[in-house]
Write a structure and sequence with these properties.
Elements: E1 73-80, E2 88-94, E3 97-104, E4 107-111, E5 126-128, E6 131-133, E7 140-142, E8 148-150, E9 159-165, E10 168-174, H1 175-180, E11 200-206, H2 210-221, E12 228-231, H3 243-246, H4 252-255, H5 260-265, E13 268-271, E14 276-280, E15 285-288, E16 293-301, E17 305-307, E18 320-321, H6 326-336, E19 340-344, H7 348-357, E20 363-368, H8 375-391, E21 395-399, E22 403-409, E23 412-418, E24 423-425, E25 428-431, E26 435-437, E27 455-456, E28 468-470, E29 475-479, E30 485-487, H9 492-506, E31 518-523, E32 526-532, E33 539-545, E34 550-557, E35 560-567, H10 572-581, H11 588-592
Parallel strand pairs: 11-12, 11-16, 12-13, 16-28, 18-25, 19-20, 19-25, 20-21, 27-29
Antiparallel strand pairs: 1-10, 2-3, 3-4, 4-9, 5-6, 6-7, 7-8, 9-10, 14-15, 15-16, 17-26, 22-23, 23-24, 29-30, 31-32, 32-35, 33-34, 34-35
Helix pairs in contact: 2-9
Length: about 600
Protein backbone atom coordinates (compact mmCIF):
# COMPACT_ATOMS: atom_id res chain seq x y z
CA UNK A 1 0.00 0.00 0.00
CA UNK A 2 1.37 3.42 -0.88
CA UNK A 3 0.48 6.99 -0.06
CA UNK A 4 -0.02 8.82 3.18
CA UNK A 5 -1.50 6.04 5.26
CA UNK A 6 -1.69 2.31 4.72
CA UNK A 7 -4.79 0.24 5.34
CA UNK A 8 -4.20 -2.55 7.87
CA UNK A 9 -4.82 -6.18 7.32
CA UNK A 10 -8.18 -7.45 8.59
CA UNK A 11 -8.27 -7.80 12.37
CA UNK A 12 -5.26 -5.56 13.03
CA UNK A 13 -5.10 -2.02 14.35
CA UNK A 14 -4.12 0.87 12.18
CA UNK A 15 -0.45 1.76 12.81
CA UNK A 16 0.43 4.81 14.87
CA UNK A 17 0.89 7.82 12.64
CA UNK A 18 3.21 10.72 13.36
CA UNK A 19 1.37 13.96 12.79
CA UNK A 20 2.31 17.61 12.63
CA UNK A 21 -0.25 19.77 14.36
CA UNK A 22 -1.28 23.38 13.80
CA UNK A 23 -2.58 25.48 16.66
CA UNK A 24 -6.28 26.09 16.03
CA UNK A 25 -7.75 29.48 16.81
CA UNK A 26 -11.13 29.81 18.54
CA UNK A 27 -14.17 30.50 16.39
CA UNK A 28 -14.24 34.19 17.33
CA UNK A 29 -10.68 34.57 15.99
CA UNK A 30 -11.34 32.85 12.67
CA UNK A 31 -10.55 36.09 10.83
CA UNK A 32 -6.99 35.94 12.17
CA UNK A 33 -6.09 33.14 9.84
CA UNK A 34 -2.45 32.63 10.69
CA UNK A 35 -0.29 31.49 13.57
CA UNK A 36 3.16 32.73 14.47
CA UNK A 37 6.14 30.80 13.16
CA UNK A 38 7.79 31.07 16.52
CA UNK A 39 4.66 31.59 18.60
CA UNK A 40 4.12 29.38 21.61
CA UNK A 41 1.11 27.18 21.89
CA UNK A 42 0.35 23.92 23.49
CA UNK A 43 0.24 21.33 20.72
CA UNK A 44 -2.55 18.83 21.17
CA UNK A 45 -1.66 15.16 21.15
CA UNK A 46 -3.49 13.51 18.25
CA UNK A 47 -4.53 9.93 18.85
CA UNK A 48 -4.88 9.35 15.13
CA UNK A 49 -4.73 5.59 15.04
CA UNK A 50 -4.92 4.46 18.61
CA UNK A 51 -1.57 5.66 19.97
CA UNK A 52 -1.31 9.05 21.66
CA UNK A 53 1.75 11.11 20.83
CA UNK A 54 2.97 14.49 22.06
CA UNK A 55 4.72 16.91 19.80
CA UNK A 56 7.69 19.17 20.19
CA UNK A 57 7.41 22.86 19.41
CA UNK A 58 9.73 22.57 16.40
CA UNK A 59 7.40 20.01 14.78
CA UNK A 60 4.62 22.55 14.36
CA UNK A 61 4.03 24.05 10.92
CA UNK A 62 5.29 27.58 10.51
CA UNK A 63 2.89 30.33 9.49
CA UNK A 64 2.90 34.13 9.47
CA UNK A 65 1.98 35.97 12.67
CA UNK A 66 -1.48 37.58 12.58
CA UNK A 67 0.01 40.84 13.84
CA UNK A 68 3.50 40.99 12.31
CA UNK A 69 6.03 43.44 13.65
CA UNK A 70 7.06 46.49 11.67
CA UNK A 71 10.17 44.73 10.35
CA UNK A 72 7.97 41.99 8.84
CA UNK A 73 5.61 44.43 7.10
CA UNK A 74 5.59 46.90 4.28
CA UNK A 75 3.26 49.89 4.16
CA UNK A 76 2.92 52.49 1.43
CA UNK A 77 0.55 54.89 -0.31
CA UNK A 78 -0.57 53.15 -3.48
CA UNK A 79 -2.91 55.71 -5.06
CA UNK A 80 -5.12 58.77 -4.57
CA UNK A 81 -8.70 58.06 -3.49
CA UNK A 82 -9.98 59.50 -6.79
CA UNK A 83 -7.77 57.26 -8.92
CA UNK A 84 -10.31 54.45 -8.79
CA UNK A 85 -14.03 54.64 -9.48
CA UNK A 86 -16.53 52.36 -7.82
CA UNK A 87 -16.42 48.92 -9.38
CA UNK A 88 -12.81 49.27 -10.53
CA UNK A 89 -9.76 47.14 -9.77
CA UNK A 90 -6.08 47.96 -10.10
CA UNK A 91 -2.86 46.04 -9.58
CA UNK A 92 -0.52 48.16 -7.44
CA UNK A 93 3.12 47.79 -6.37
CA UNK A 94 3.77 47.29 -2.67
CA UNK A 95 7.34 46.71 -1.55
CA UNK A 96 8.63 43.58 -3.27
CA UNK A 97 5.22 42.46 -4.37
CA UNK A 98 1.91 43.44 -5.88
CA UNK A 99 -1.58 43.82 -4.46
CA UNK A 100 -5.03 43.86 -6.05
CA UNK A 101 -6.75 47.09 -5.02
CA UNK A 102 -10.53 47.11 -5.35
CA UNK A 103 -13.01 49.95 -4.90
CA UNK A 104 -16.55 48.79 -4.27
CA UNK A 105 -19.45 50.81 -2.82
CA UNK A 106 -17.04 53.57 -1.83
CA UNK A 107 -14.74 51.25 0.13
CA UNK A 108 -11.22 50.16 -0.76
CA UNK A 109 -10.08 46.54 -0.34
CA UNK A 110 -6.59 45.09 -0.85
CA UNK A 111 -6.08 41.43 -1.69
CA UNK A 112 -3.57 39.02 -3.19
CA UNK A 113 -3.33 39.80 -6.92
CA UNK A 114 -2.99 36.27 -8.33
CA UNK A 115 -5.54 33.47 -8.31
CA UNK A 116 -4.09 30.69 -6.12
CA UNK A 117 -5.35 28.05 -8.57
CA UNK A 118 -3.05 28.66 -11.58
CA UNK A 119 -1.78 32.20 -10.97
CA UNK A 120 -4.15 34.21 -13.17
CA UNK A 121 -3.97 38.02 -12.76
CA UNK A 122 -7.22 38.80 -10.94
CA UNK A 123 -7.18 42.42 -12.15
CA UNK A 124 -8.27 40.99 -15.52
CA UNK A 125 -11.18 39.21 -13.88
CA UNK A 126 -14.72 40.31 -13.05
CA UNK A 127 -15.83 42.31 -10.01
CA UNK A 128 -19.45 41.69 -9.09
CA UNK A 129 -21.62 41.30 -6.00
CA UNK A 130 -18.76 41.78 -3.56
CA UNK A 131 -16.44 39.24 -5.10
CA UNK A 132 -13.84 38.98 -7.85
CA UNK A 133 -14.03 36.12 -10.34
CA UNK A 134 -10.86 34.72 -11.95
CA UNK A 135 -10.66 35.38 -15.72
CA UNK A 136 -9.16 31.99 -16.52
CA UNK A 137 -11.12 29.32 -14.65
CA UNK A 138 -13.87 31.13 -12.76
CA UNK A 139 -12.80 30.84 -9.10
CA UNK A 140 -14.43 33.55 -6.92
CA UNK A 141 -13.01 35.40 -3.91
CA UNK A 142 -14.82 37.59 -1.38
CA UNK A 143 -13.28 41.06 -1.52
CA UNK A 144 -13.98 41.72 2.18
CA UNK A 145 -12.28 38.57 3.49
CA UNK A 146 -10.28 37.09 0.58
CA UNK A 147 -12.11 33.81 1.15
CA UNK A 148 -12.61 31.40 -1.75
CA UNK A 149 -16.35 31.34 -2.52
CA UNK A 150 -16.46 29.38 -5.76
CA UNK A 151 -14.06 26.98 -7.39
CA UNK A 152 -11.71 25.59 -8.76
CA UNK A 153 -8.74 25.66 -6.39
CA UNK A 154 -8.32 25.08 -2.67
CA UNK A 155 -6.83 28.24 -1.20
CA UNK A 156 -8.05 31.76 -0.47
CA UNK A 157 -6.40 35.16 -0.93
CA UNK A 158 -4.59 37.18 1.68
CA UNK A 159 -6.52 40.28 2.78
CA UNK A 160 -4.41 43.34 3.55
CA UNK A 161 -5.04 46.37 5.78
CA UNK A 162 -6.20 49.57 4.06
CA UNK A 163 -6.36 53.08 5.50
CA UNK A 164 -7.11 56.49 4.03
CA UNK A 165 -4.99 59.46 5.06
CA UNK A 166 -5.00 62.89 3.39
CA UNK A 167 -6.94 61.46 0.41
CA UNK A 168 -4.31 58.79 -0.19
CA UNK A 169 -4.88 55.05 0.00
CA UNK A 170 -2.34 53.19 2.15
CA UNK A 171 -1.93 49.42 2.16
CA UNK A 172 -0.09 47.46 4.85
CA UNK A 173 0.91 43.84 4.32
CA UNK A 174 3.29 41.26 5.71
CA UNK A 175 6.20 40.53 3.41
CA UNK A 176 5.57 36.81 3.69
CA UNK A 177 1.93 37.14 2.61
CA UNK A 178 2.98 39.22 -0.40
CA UNK A 179 5.34 36.44 -1.46
CA UNK A 180 2.96 33.53 -0.85
CA UNK A 181 -0.06 34.83 -2.83
CA UNK A 182 -2.29 32.19 -1.22
CA UNK A 183 -3.83 31.53 2.17
CA UNK A 184 -4.93 28.15 3.47
CA UNK A 185 -7.86 28.54 5.83
CA UNK A 186 -7.48 27.63 9.48
CA UNK A 187 -8.56 24.04 10.06
CA UNK A 188 -9.60 22.13 13.14
CA UNK A 189 -7.34 19.41 14.45
CA UNK A 190 -8.60 15.85 14.78
CA UNK A 191 -9.05 15.25 18.51
CA UNK A 192 -11.27 12.18 18.28
CA UNK A 193 -9.45 9.29 19.97
CA UNK A 194 -9.59 6.10 17.92
CA UNK A 195 -7.89 3.78 20.40
CA UNK A 196 -9.50 0.39 20.03
CA UNK A 197 -11.74 1.76 17.27
CA UNK A 198 -9.48 1.61 14.25
CA UNK A 199 -12.24 -0.10 12.29
CA UNK A 200 -14.59 2.88 12.66
CA UNK A 201 -14.54 6.49 11.52
CA UNK A 202 -16.89 9.40 11.81
CA UNK A 203 -16.63 10.36 8.13
CA UNK A 204 -15.65 8.01 5.32
CA UNK A 205 -14.99 9.51 1.89
CA UNK A 206 -14.82 7.08 -1.04
CA UNK A 207 -12.79 8.74 -3.79
CA UNK A 208 -9.94 11.24 -3.46
CA UNK A 209 -10.56 13.49 -6.44
CA UNK A 210 -11.63 17.12 -6.13
CA UNK A 211 -14.97 16.31 -4.47
CA UNK A 212 -13.46 14.04 -1.81
CA UNK A 213 -10.57 16.35 -0.97
CA UNK A 214 -12.72 19.50 -0.77
CA UNK A 215 -15.22 17.66 1.43
CA UNK A 216 -12.46 16.69 3.88
CA UNK A 217 -10.94 20.18 3.90
CA UNK A 218 -14.32 21.88 4.32
CA UNK A 219 -15.14 19.71 7.33
CA UNK A 220 -11.89 20.76 8.99
CA UNK A 221 -12.40 24.43 8.03
CA UNK A 222 -15.84 24.33 9.63
CA UNK A 223 -14.40 23.09 12.92
CA UNK A 224 -15.10 19.36 12.58
CA UNK A 225 -12.58 17.55 14.80
CA UNK A 226 -13.61 13.90 14.53
CA UNK A 227 -11.95 11.25 12.41
CA UNK A 228 -11.96 11.54 8.60
CA UNK A 229 -10.81 8.70 6.34
CA UNK A 230 -10.33 9.34 2.63
CA UNK A 231 -9.84 6.23 0.46
CA UNK A 232 -8.74 6.05 -3.15
CA UNK A 233 -8.00 3.44 -5.79
CA UNK A 234 -4.99 5.54 -6.77
CA UNK A 235 -1.51 4.93 -5.45
CA UNK A 236 -1.06 8.69 -5.09
CA UNK A 237 -2.42 11.34 -2.77
CA UNK A 238 -5.05 13.63 -4.42
CA UNK A 239 -3.68 15.21 -7.59
CA UNK A 240 -4.68 17.62 -10.37
CA UNK A 241 -6.28 15.14 -12.76
CA UNK A 242 -7.19 17.63 -15.55
CA UNK A 243 -3.47 18.22 -16.07
CA UNK A 244 -2.90 14.57 -17.04
CA UNK A 245 -4.06 15.03 -20.61
CA UNK A 246 -2.70 18.58 -20.97
CA UNK A 247 0.81 17.84 -19.70
CA UNK A 248 1.53 14.15 -20.12
CA UNK A 249 5.13 14.47 -18.90
CA UNK A 250 4.09 15.80 -15.48
CA UNK A 251 5.32 13.74 -12.52
CA UNK A 252 3.04 12.80 -9.60
CA UNK A 253 4.78 15.19 -7.20
CA UNK A 254 4.20 18.05 -9.66
CA UNK A 255 0.49 17.22 -9.82
CA UNK A 256 -0.13 16.84 -6.07
CA UNK A 257 -2.89 19.13 -4.78
CA UNK A 258 -1.52 19.02 -1.22
CA UNK A 259 1.78 17.71 0.16
CA UNK A 260 1.86 14.63 2.36
CA UNK A 261 2.52 16.83 5.41
CA UNK A 262 -0.78 18.63 4.89
CA UNK A 263 -2.81 15.48 5.47
CA UNK A 264 -0.80 14.62 8.56
CA UNK A 265 -1.09 18.13 9.96
CA UNK A 266 -4.86 18.20 9.61
CA UNK A 267 -5.60 14.63 10.61
CA UNK A 268 -7.03 13.54 7.26
CA UNK A 269 -6.18 9.86 6.87
CA UNK A 270 -5.66 8.69 3.31
CA UNK A 271 -5.90 5.02 2.33
CA UNK A 272 -4.28 4.55 -1.08
CA UNK A 273 -4.86 1.60 -3.43
CA UNK A 274 -7.96 0.89 -1.36
CA UNK A 275 -11.04 -0.39 -3.19
CA UNK A 276 -14.47 -0.43 -1.57
CA UNK A 277 -16.40 -3.39 -2.96
CA UNK A 278 -19.68 -3.14 -1.00
CA UNK A 279 -21.48 -0.68 1.24
CA UNK A 280 -23.78 -1.98 3.98
CA UNK A 281 -26.02 1.01 4.65
CA UNK A 282 -28.07 -0.73 7.35
CA UNK A 283 -24.98 -1.30 9.52
CA UNK A 284 -23.13 1.75 8.16
CA UNK A 285 -20.14 -0.26 7.06
CA UNK A 286 -17.88 -0.27 3.98
CA UNK A 287 -16.15 -3.47 2.95
CA UNK A 288 -12.82 -3.29 1.11
CA UNK A 289 -11.48 -5.70 -1.50
CA UNK A 290 -9.06 -7.29 0.98
CA UNK A 291 -11.83 -7.90 3.50
CA UNK A 292 -11.10 -4.92 5.75
CA UNK A 293 -14.33 -3.38 7.13
CA UNK A 294 -14.74 0.21 8.20
CA UNK A 295 -17.78 1.55 10.04
CA UNK A 296 -18.84 5.15 9.43
CA UNK A 297 -21.33 7.70 10.73
CA UNK A 298 -21.41 9.82 7.56
CA UNK A 299 -20.43 8.67 4.08
CA UNK A 300 -19.49 10.61 0.94
CA UNK A 301 -19.48 8.67 -2.31
CA UNK A 302 -17.21 10.34 -4.88
CA UNK A 303 -15.94 7.37 -6.90
CA UNK A 304 -15.70 9.25 -10.19
CA UNK A 305 -15.93 7.43 -13.50
CA UNK A 306 -14.28 4.61 -15.41
CA UNK A 307 -13.13 5.17 -18.99
CA UNK A 308 -14.86 3.31 -21.80
CA UNK A 309 -12.59 0.96 -23.72
CA UNK A 310 -12.59 -0.35 -27.27
CA UNK A 311 -14.46 -3.59 -27.89
CA UNK A 312 -12.95 -4.36 -31.30
CA UNK A 313 -10.75 -7.24 -32.38
CA UNK A 314 -7.29 -7.00 -30.80
CA UNK A 315 -8.51 -4.78 -27.95
CA UNK A 316 -6.04 -6.38 -25.51
CA UNK A 317 -2.82 -5.67 -27.41
CA UNK A 318 -0.06 -3.78 -25.59
CA UNK A 319 0.44 0.00 -25.76
CA UNK A 320 -3.25 0.93 -25.90
CA UNK A 321 -4.17 3.33 -23.08
CA UNK A 322 -6.97 5.16 -21.38
CA UNK A 323 -5.28 7.93 -19.43
CA UNK A 324 -6.24 7.58 -15.76
CA UNK A 325 -2.97 7.96 -13.87
CA UNK A 326 0.30 9.90 -14.13
CA UNK A 327 2.00 6.58 -14.98
CA UNK A 328 -0.36 6.12 -17.96
CA UNK A 329 0.37 9.63 -19.22
CA UNK A 330 4.13 9.34 -18.76
CA UNK A 331 4.24 6.00 -20.57
CA UNK A 332 2.25 7.34 -23.53
CA UNK A 333 4.79 10.14 -24.02
CA UNK A 334 7.73 7.72 -23.84
CA UNK A 335 6.18 5.37 -26.40
CA UNK A 336 5.11 8.20 -28.73
CA UNK A 337 8.45 10.01 -28.89
CA UNK A 338 9.56 10.00 -32.52
CA UNK A 339 6.92 7.38 -33.39
CA UNK A 340 3.32 7.10 -34.57
CA UNK A 341 0.44 7.93 -32.21
CA UNK A 342 -3.27 7.35 -32.79
CA UNK A 343 -5.92 8.98 -30.63
CA UNK A 344 -9.45 7.53 -30.68
CA UNK A 345 -12.05 10.14 -29.75
CA UNK A 346 -12.09 13.88 -30.47
CA UNK A 347 -13.48 15.08 -27.15
CA UNK A 348 -11.55 17.07 -24.58
CA UNK A 349 -9.23 14.31 -23.41
CA UNK A 350 -8.44 13.05 -26.91
CA UNK A 351 -7.80 16.47 -28.38
CA UNK A 352 -5.64 17.58 -25.45
CA UNK A 353 -3.52 14.45 -25.79
CA UNK A 354 -3.24 14.90 -29.56
CA UNK A 355 -2.13 18.52 -29.12
CA UNK A 356 0.51 17.59 -26.54
CA UNK A 357 1.94 14.76 -28.66
CA UNK A 358 2.43 16.80 -31.83
CA UNK A 359 5.84 18.04 -30.65
CA UNK A 360 6.88 14.59 -29.43
CA UNK A 361 5.57 12.07 -31.98
CA UNK A 362 6.50 11.48 -35.61
CA UNK A 363 2.79 11.50 -36.50
CA UNK A 364 -0.50 12.05 -34.66
CA UNK A 365 -3.82 10.79 -36.04
CA UNK A 366 -7.28 11.31 -34.53
CA UNK A 367 -10.19 8.94 -35.20
CA UNK A 368 -13.72 10.20 -34.48
CA UNK A 369 -17.28 9.05 -35.20
CA UNK A 370 -18.67 12.60 -35.54
CA UNK A 371 -18.11 15.00 -38.47
CA UNK A 372 -16.11 17.49 -36.39
CA UNK A 373 -14.35 17.50 -33.01
CA UNK A 374 -16.41 18.76 -30.03
CA UNK A 375 -19.50 18.88 -32.27
CA UNK A 376 -22.07 18.04 -29.59
CA UNK A 377 -20.45 20.32 -27.05
CA UNK A 378 -19.26 23.34 -29.06
CA UNK A 379 -21.21 23.02 -32.31
CA UNK A 380 -20.19 22.58 -35.94
CA UNK A 381 -18.55 25.97 -36.59
CA UNK A 382 -16.38 26.13 -33.49
CA UNK A 383 -15.50 22.45 -33.88
CA UNK A 384 -14.37 22.96 -37.46
CA UNK A 385 -12.28 25.98 -36.45
CA UNK A 386 -10.46 23.98 -33.81
CA UNK A 387 -10.00 21.12 -36.29
CA UNK A 388 -8.22 23.52 -38.68
CA UNK A 389 -5.94 24.64 -35.85
CA UNK A 390 -4.97 21.01 -35.26
CA UNK A 391 -4.47 20.30 -38.97
CA UNK A 392 -2.10 23.26 -39.20
CA UNK A 393 -0.10 21.53 -36.45
CA UNK A 394 0.28 18.28 -38.46
CA UNK A 395 -2.60 16.34 -36.86
CA UNK A 396 -4.41 14.09 -39.34
CA UNK A 397 -8.14 13.46 -38.82
CA UNK A 398 -10.18 10.42 -39.79
CA UNK A 399 -13.77 11.45 -39.19
CA UNK A 400 -17.11 9.60 -39.33
CA UNK A 401 -15.42 6.26 -38.79
CA UNK A 402 -14.32 4.05 -35.93
CA UNK A 403 -11.75 1.39 -35.10
CA UNK A 404 -12.49 -2.13 -36.34
CA UNK A 405 -9.22 -3.82 -35.34
CA UNK A 406 -5.98 -3.29 -33.46
CA UNK A 407 -3.12 -5.27 -35.00
CA UNK A 408 -0.02 -6.31 -33.09
CA UNK A 409 3.48 -7.45 -33.83
CA UNK A 410 4.99 -9.57 -31.06
CA UNK A 411 2.08 -8.54 -28.83
CA UNK A 412 2.65 -4.80 -29.26
CA UNK A 413 0.47 -2.43 -31.26
CA UNK A 414 1.56 -1.84 -34.85
CA UNK A 415 -1.56 -0.85 -36.81
CA UNK A 416 -5.03 0.58 -36.22
CA UNK A 417 -7.58 -0.59 -38.80
CA UNK A 418 -10.61 1.63 -39.38
CA UNK A 419 -14.09 0.60 -40.54
CA UNK A 420 -13.42 2.74 -43.62
CA UNK A 421 -10.69 0.13 -44.38
CA UNK A 422 -7.95 2.68 -43.83
CA UNK A 423 -4.92 1.25 -41.98
CA UNK A 424 -2.96 3.60 -39.71
CA UNK A 425 0.57 2.92 -38.50
CA UNK A 426 0.54 3.09 -34.71
CA UNK A 427 3.08 2.49 -31.95
CA UNK A 428 0.80 3.83 -29.24
CA UNK A 429 -2.95 4.42 -29.06
CA UNK A 430 -4.87 6.59 -26.58
CA UNK A 431 -8.60 5.92 -26.21
CA UNK A 432 -10.80 8.83 -25.13
CA UNK A 433 -14.35 7.80 -26.01
CA UNK A 434 -16.13 8.74 -22.82
CA UNK A 435 -16.64 7.27 -19.38
CA UNK A 436 -19.23 5.55 -17.21
CA UNK A 437 -19.86 6.15 -13.49
CA UNK A 438 -17.74 3.88 -11.27
CA UNK A 439 -20.72 2.80 -9.18
CA UNK A 440 -20.89 -0.95 -9.78
CA UNK A 441 -20.02 -1.61 -6.12
CA UNK A 442 -23.27 0.11 -5.05
CA UNK A 443 -25.71 -2.03 -7.07
CA UNK A 444 -26.88 -4.16 -4.14
CA UNK A 445 -26.43 -1.48 -1.47
CA UNK A 446 -29.86 0.14 -1.44
CA UNK A 447 -28.29 3.46 -2.47
CA UNK A 448 -30.27 4.65 -5.47
CA UNK A 449 -28.76 4.49 -8.96
CA UNK A 450 -30.46 5.59 -12.17
CA UNK A 451 -30.64 3.52 -15.34
CA UNK A 452 -27.20 4.77 -16.47
CA UNK A 453 -25.54 4.01 -13.15
CA UNK A 454 -25.40 7.58 -11.83
CA UNK A 455 -26.22 8.39 -8.20
CA UNK A 456 -29.16 10.84 -8.03
CA UNK A 457 -28.80 13.45 -5.27
CA UNK A 458 -30.81 16.48 -4.17
CA UNK A 459 -29.57 20.08 -3.94
CA UNK A 460 -27.84 19.19 -0.67
CA UNK A 461 -25.94 16.32 -2.33
CA UNK A 462 -27.90 13.77 -0.27
CA UNK A 463 -28.72 10.35 -1.70
CA UNK A 464 -31.88 8.40 -0.92
CA UNK A 465 -30.16 7.03 2.22
CA UNK A 466 -29.88 9.32 5.29
CA UNK A 467 -26.28 10.18 6.15
CA UNK A 468 -25.03 9.14 2.71
CA UNK A 469 -23.96 11.92 0.34
CA UNK A 470 -22.52 11.79 -3.17
CA UNK A 471 -20.55 14.22 -5.36
CA UNK A 472 -18.45 14.46 -8.50
CA UNK A 473 -18.58 12.76 -11.87
CA UNK A 474 -20.83 9.91 -10.69
CA UNK A 475 -23.86 12.00 -9.67
CA UNK A 476 -26.88 13.64 -11.22
CA UNK A 477 -28.11 16.71 -9.38
CA UNK A 478 -30.65 19.53 -9.85
CA UNK A 479 -29.08 22.45 -11.73
CA UNK A 480 -30.63 25.50 -10.07
CA UNK A 481 -30.51 27.99 -12.94
CA UNK A 482 -31.83 25.44 -15.48
CA UNK A 483 -35.09 24.95 -13.57
CA UNK A 484 -33.59 22.24 -11.35
CA UNK A 485 -33.16 19.90 -14.28
CA UNK A 486 -31.34 16.74 -13.16
CA UNK A 487 -27.97 16.75 -14.90
CA UNK A 488 -24.57 15.09 -14.79
CA UNK A 489 -21.68 17.56 -15.18
CA UNK A 490 -18.28 15.83 -14.95
CA UNK A 491 -16.27 19.03 -14.54
CA UNK A 492 -13.37 19.52 -12.13
CA UNK A 493 -14.83 22.80 -10.84
CA UNK A 494 -18.26 21.27 -10.24
CA UNK A 495 -16.76 18.42 -8.22
CA UNK A 496 -15.11 20.98 -5.90
CA UNK A 497 -18.42 22.77 -5.32
CA UNK A 498 -20.35 19.56 -4.70
CA UNK A 499 -17.73 18.33 -2.22
CA UNK A 500 -18.10 21.50 -0.19
CA UNK A 501 -21.90 21.37 -0.16
CA UNK A 502 -21.80 17.72 0.95
CA UNK A 503 -19.48 18.61 3.84
CA UNK A 504 -21.65 21.54 4.90
CA UNK A 505 -24.71 19.30 5.01
CA UNK A 506 -22.91 16.58 6.96
CA UNK A 507 -22.70 19.40 9.53
CA UNK A 508 -26.43 20.21 9.10
CA UNK A 509 -25.80 23.64 7.53
CA UNK A 510 -28.54 23.20 4.90
CA UNK A 511 -26.35 24.39 2.01
CA UNK A 512 -27.54 23.97 -1.59
CA UNK A 513 -25.55 23.53 -4.79
CA UNK A 514 -25.90 26.65 -6.94
CA UNK A 515 -22.61 27.11 -8.81
CA UNK A 516 -22.50 27.83 -12.55
CA UNK A 517 -20.56 25.09 -14.41
CA UNK A 518 -17.17 26.29 -15.68
CA UNK A 519 -14.50 24.39 -17.60
CA UNK A 520 -11.45 25.02 -19.73
CA UNK A 521 -9.10 23.32 -22.12
CA UNK A 522 -5.64 24.24 -23.41
CA UNK A 523 -4.27 23.22 -26.81
CA UNK A 524 -1.25 24.66 -28.68
CA UNK A 525 -0.92 27.43 -26.06
CA UNK A 526 -4.51 28.47 -26.75
CA UNK A 527 -7.07 28.35 -23.96
CA UNK A 528 -10.75 27.75 -24.54
CA UNK A 529 -13.07 28.62 -21.67
CA UNK A 530 -16.68 27.54 -21.22
CA UNK A 531 -19.44 28.32 -18.73
CA UNK A 532 -23.04 27.19 -18.40
CA UNK A 533 -24.85 24.04 -19.44
CA UNK A 534 -25.36 23.87 -23.17
CA UNK A 535 -26.94 20.46 -23.71
CA UNK A 536 -29.80 20.78 -26.19
CA UNK A 537 -28.69 24.12 -27.68
CA UNK A 538 -30.47 24.94 -30.94
CA UNK A 539 -28.41 27.89 -32.17
CA UNK A 540 -24.91 29.36 -31.79
CA UNK A 541 -24.29 33.12 -32.00
CA UNK A 542 -20.64 33.87 -32.79
CA UNK A 543 -19.01 37.24 -32.17
CA UNK A 544 -15.40 37.95 -33.12
CA UNK A 545 -13.27 36.13 -35.68
CA UNK A 546 -13.17 32.34 -35.75
CA UNK A 547 -10.31 32.26 -38.25
CA UNK A 548 -8.18 34.44 -35.97
CA UNK A 549 -9.10 32.23 -32.99
CA UNK A 550 -10.44 35.31 -31.22
CA UNK A 551 -14.13 34.72 -30.64
CA UNK A 552 -16.98 34.20 -28.24
CA UNK A 553 -19.78 31.71 -28.96
CA UNK A 554 -23.15 32.00 -27.23
CA UNK A 555 -25.22 28.80 -27.15
CA UNK A 556 -28.94 29.41 -27.09
CA UNK A 557 -32.09 27.37 -26.59
CA UNK A 558 -35.18 29.21 -27.71
CA UNK A 559 -34.77 32.81 -26.56
CA UNK A 560 -32.25 32.09 -23.79
CA UNK A 561 -28.45 31.92 -23.65
CA UNK A 562 -27.60 28.68 -21.83
CA UNK A 563 -23.81 28.58 -22.21
CA UNK A 564 -20.83 30.43 -23.62
CA UNK A 565 -17.39 29.51 -24.96
CA UNK A 566 -14.51 31.81 -25.87
CA UNK A 567 -10.94 31.93 -27.05
CA UNK A 568 -8.71 35.02 -26.62
CA UNK A 569 -11.71 36.97 -25.36
CA UNK A 570 -11.17 37.20 -21.59
CA UNK A 571 -12.90 37.86 -19.28
CA UNK A 572 -16.13 37.30 -21.20
CA UNK A 573 -16.78 33.75 -19.99
CA UNK A 574 -16.23 34.75 -16.36
CA UNK A 575 -18.54 37.73 -16.88
CA UNK A 576 -21.29 35.55 -18.34
CA UNK A 577 -20.81 33.06 -15.49
CA UNK A 578 -21.26 35.90 -13.01
CA UNK A 579 -24.42 37.11 -14.75
CA UNK A 580 -25.85 33.58 -14.74
CA UNK A 581 -24.87 33.16 -11.08
CA UNK A 582 -26.89 36.29 -10.25
CA UNK A 583 -30.00 34.49 -11.62
CA UNK A 584 -30.34 36.92 -14.49
CA UNK A 585 -31.48 35.46 -17.81
CA UNK A 586 -29.46 36.48 -20.87
CA UNK A 587 -31.69 36.79 -23.92
CA UNK A 588 -30.65 35.76 -27.41
CA UNK A 589 -31.33 39.26 -28.79
CA UNK A 590 -28.80 40.72 -26.32
CA UNK A 591 -25.94 38.78 -27.90
CA UNK A 592 -27.07 38.92 -31.53
CA UNK A 593 -26.36 42.65 -31.90
CA UNK A 594 -22.62 42.35 -31.23
CA UNK A 595 -22.86 45.10 -28.61
CA UNK A 596 -21.38 43.44 -25.54
CA UNK A 597 -20.75 46.56 -23.50
CA UNK A 598 -23.01 45.10 -20.79
CA UNK A 599 -20.43 42.33 -20.37
CA UNK A 600 -17.28 44.47 -20.22
CA UNK A 601 -15.13 44.04 -17.11
CA UNK A 602 -13.55 47.06 -15.40
CA UNK A 603 -10.06 45.82 -14.59
CA UNK A 604 -7.12 48.10 -15.34
Amino acid sequence: MGGCFSKPKPGTSLPAVELKIEVVLPEKDRGKEEVSAGGKGSPRAYQGNGTARHFHAEERLSAPHPYPGAQDCVEAAVCHIKDLENGQMREVELGWGKVLLVKDNGEFHALGHKCPHYGAPLVKGVLSRGRVRCPWHGACFNISTGDLEDFPGLDSLHKFQVKIEKEKVYVRASKQALQLQRRTKVMATCISPSAGHSSSTNVLIVGAGAAGLVCAETLRQEGFSDRIVLCTLDRHLPYDRPKLSKSLDAQPEQLALRPKEFFRAHGIEVLTEAQVVTVDVRNKKAVFKDGFKLEYSKLLLAPGSSPKTLSCKGKDVENVFTIRTPEDANRVVRLARGRNAVVVGAGFLGMEVAAYLTEKAHSVSVVELEETPFRRFLGERVGRTLMKMFESNRVKFYMQTEVSELRAQEGKLKEVVLKSSKVLRADVCVVGIGAVPATGFLRQSGIGLNSRGFIPVNKMMQTNVPGVFAAGDAVTFPLAWRNNRKVNIPHWQMAHAQGRVAAQNMLAQEAEISTVPYLWTAMFSKSLRYAGYGEGFDDVIIQGDLDELKFVAFYTKGDEVISVASMNYDPIVSKVAEVLASSRTIRKREVETGDMSWLTGKGS
